[in-house]
Amino acid sequence: MKTWKGRSRKTAVIKTGNEAYEQMKERKHLYVGCTRCRVFDITFVLRCGKCAMIGQTEIHCPADKAEFCGVRCARRHYYKHCNAAEECCASCLELPDVTEEDAYHTMMSFQCPVYLQKKKEILQRILVQMELPYQRTD
């Protein structure tokens, strides 16, 4: 169970069988006691602000110093010291055949192609473990 300070909202992560999963997904809501809760799939993708790698966080990053501004501009400085006006994704710049125009977004963007691909891979892995077919397109 996760909670956020100053909010009465809580997130519960539950594991169910295939049939219950499909029913909850169809209904989009679940009652917990007398509280109606929204049901949705969530896939966490770890992103490091120190070295701009996807799959780890800054706390567990082996880099001694910030290799890139992984959050905003992809230059060589720590993201908390960034004051760049233009955005550039360090993760996308690592891909072959990617121009700076293609990488004109922050690494933390939910529209980042690298992030979306990793999210898709994680979701596929979860659904395989649950023995469910992969159906999502977003």
Task: Describe, in plain words, how this protein is organized in 3D.
This protein is 22% helix and 9% strand. With 138 residues, the chain is of the alpha+beta class. The protein has two domains: 6-42, no CATH class; 43-130, no CATH class. The longest helix is centred in the C-terminal third of the chain and has 17 residues, at 113-129. The relative contact order is 0.12.
Please sum up the structure shown.
The protein has helices at residues 18-27, 90-93, 113-129, and strands at 2-3, 10-11, 29-32, 35-38. The chain has 138 residues and is α+β, with helices and mostly antiparallel strands.
Could you tell me the strand content as a percent range? 5-15%
The DSSP helix count reads 3
* Residue runs with pLDDT of under 50 for 5 or more positions: none
Query: Shape, please?
Result: elongated
With strands numbered from the N-terminus, the spatial order across the biggest sheet is 1-2
Number of domains: 2
Overall number of strands? 4
* Helix-strand pattern: EEHEEHH
- Roughly how much helix do the residues carry, as a percent range? 10-25%
Structural class of the helix and strand makeup? alpha+beta
Rg (CA only): 18 Å
| Separation, N- and C-terminal Cα atoms | 26 Å
Overall pLDDT metric: 77
